[in-house]
Amino acid sequence: MPVVAVKVVQMIRDPRTTAKDLAKAISLDAAVSARVLKIANSPFYSMQREVKTLERAVVILGEKTLRSLVFASSVKALNKNFGLMEKMLWEDSMGCAIGARLMAQRFRSADPEEAFLGGLFRHIGKLVMNNLDSSKFLQMVQEAYNGEGTLGELERRYFPFSHAVIGAAVLKKWNFSENLIHVTRHHEDMRMYVEEAPALNRLMATVNLADNLCKHLGVGRRSPEQSSDLSMIPGAKALGLEVEQLDQVMSEFKEVFERDRDAFME
């Protein structure tokens, strides 16, 4: 886990931590500090006036939102290199994080900040694969693009585990909640329906929906994948969404992502 994120998570768990303490911890990483303030002042958070200090950002946004922004601002640094592939992976992560938060708010399907982290981390296993062997990962992605197999099939051919299994292991090592671990492991197949955990099921459905909207719009991909029927998306079916609702939210997501992508990604 990025150093500044470790510190912030530890401090948030301590009830004695003040906004000033959190701001001081974040300020130790100049790049993260600048990005947090830039995102906080983007239209995405609809601040009525400019937030000029980290301490003010903590007070206005709250600790949960601040945690999301610290992770969004620091995970990028986990890449060993940052070329075209890494840029696509980063856009994919940020796009789904933005989309999942938007879906959670729009349909009241999950906690917006938990949905944001679910979207942000759902493909962190791909980042691990790329860091481990970038040439092998690139070959795998190229073969999937050429139609030589599904990404799931190719992952098993090139790596010992799927990106979902790796991602879940990473979040477990980082001591994230069981809900986020389950979402990372099952966001694509939606096979793990937990009868006694409706909130977890809605969170998984929210991230799955955002993931599929990213595919449909080409966010973090070479080109859009518009052949799929939006109404058949597992997340949309689980949330009981109609085609008209999906069309509306896709337009909204596209507008929000295009408007705010620079604030999140630069």
Tell me about this structure.
- By secondary structure, the protein is mainly α.
- The chain has helices at 3-13, 19-27, 30-40, 54-61, 63-74, 84-107, 112-121, 124-132, 134-145, 151-158, 163-173, 178-186, 198-217, 234-239, 243-265.
- It folds into two domains: 1-78, no CATH class; 79-265, Hypothetical protein af1432 (Orthogonal Bundle), CATH 1.10.3210.
- It has 15 helices and no strands.
- The longest helix has 24 residues, at 84-107.
- The chain is globular.
- The model has no long low-confidence stretch (mean pLDDT 89).
CATH third-tier fold name of the largest domain: Hypothetical protein af1432
Please count the beta strands (DSSP E, at least 2 residues each): 0
For the record, the CATH architecture of the largest domain stands as Orthogonal Bundle
Termini separation comes to 21 Å
Radius of gyration from CA coordinates: 18 Å
Helix/strand-derived category reads: mainly alpha
Please tell me what the overall shape is: globular
Main sheet makeup: none
Helicity level, as a percent range?
55-70%
Number of helices: 15
Q: Domains counted in the coordinates: how many?
A: 2
Low-confidence stretches: none
Q: Would you state the CATH class of the largest domain? A: Mainly Alpha
Task: Please provide the ordered H/E string of secondary-structure elements.
Answer: HHHHHHHHHHHHHHH
Any idea what the CATH superfamily of the largest domain is called?
Hypothetical protein af1432
- The oligomeric state is single chain
Portion of residues in beta strands equals under 5%
Mean pLDDT over the residues: 89
